[in-house]
Each structure stands twice: as C-alpha cells, then as structure tokens.
Design goal:
Blueprint: H1 2-8, H2 11-16, H3 25-31, H4 33-41, E1 51-53, H5 54-64, H6 70-77, E2 87-89, E3 102-105, E4 107-110, H7 118-121, H8 126-135, H9 149-162, H10 170-180, E5 184-185, H11 188-196
Antiparallel strand pairs: 1-2, 3-4, 3-5
Helix pairs in contact: 1-9, 4-9, 8-9
Length: about 200
Amino acid sequence: MTGDIIGQIPESLAERFREHGQQDRISIIKGNWKSIACMICGACCCSSVVPISARDLEMFYERLGFSMSLESFRSMFVADPETLCVNHTIETKRYGGRCMFLGKKEHFCCDVWDNRAEVCRNFFCWETANFEKWMNGEQRDSFDNESSWIQNFSRLVTLLTTESPLGFFPEDMAGYVRLVDTKNSPSWFETNRDNLI
C-alpha cells in the first residue's frame, strides 16, 4: 500500500514543491503533505458554501494584482457581492460547480495557489486535522500508532478520495464527481486569464 500511494501522487504535483535537486520524493511529500493532500482531494473548492470575509477578499484581490476593479472582481468571485454581511460565499455555480481558479491536470490545481485567499489556506478539513493531531502524538481512530508515517498518509489520502464531505450536498457532489472523472479540465481563470490581467 505504501508504494502504491506514493506512486499515485502525480510527479507534477510532487515537483511543484521541490526545494532543491537532491531532495527525494518522500521528503517532498512529508514536507508538503497538507498541500499535496489538498490537491489530491479538491472537494472544498467545489463546495457552494465556502465563506470568505470582505477583508480577506480585499487582501486576496490585492495579492493577485488584477487590473480590473475590486467591484468587478467581487461580482465575479462572490455569490453575493452586494451583501453587507461580514462573510460572502465563494461563487462556484457560474464556473461549472467549482471555484473559478480550480482546474484539473492529473490532480486538482489552483491557478492562484501561492496567492490564494486566507479562507483557502486555513480551511478546516476534518481528515487533515486528525492526521496532524496523530502526527503530534494524539491517539486518533483513523490512524494507527503502530504504522509508519507513509502508511498513515496513505490512509489519509484514501479517506479524502473516498469519503468526500460533499456527500451531504448532492448538487455539489455531482459536479465534484464529474470533475474527479475528468483527466484535464482547465479552470475558468486559466481559460480567461488574458482578459482579466
């Protein structure tokens, strides 16, 4: 099982996080396990209920450096751009049931990963939180203290790819399954980048 899961992680995904030429694949995966797990799963980016604060949206917009106005970006990115509430909801319905920045090339890929919004950086994932607790020495039902790090990471990947939290949202889940079954599907942003920057 250990070899299988490491082999299932696309080379392009591992290489994205390479820090130097001598770094072996296991070190890359161990050092970037949360980001790699996120890009293997991708479910959160297909949810229609991801909240983003107005402050976070503005910081995200500034990091991206778009030439379009904040108001134009807000109308494209959030489902309720006119709300006076603290939180907006990231728009997914207009972009095929996924975030406008989410594409698929062997694995899920965020076209703005290095500049992504704080809500994306800090999004709570029950499975990765449990894995991190196990790494910190806590007993967790999903992970075995007698198993190696790689074996438990394999378990994490299995949980993420077989027990999607979107199962509670049938419409979101249907769009997610379509994307999972697609080998190559560029994001809306990748397809329209030249018109936006």
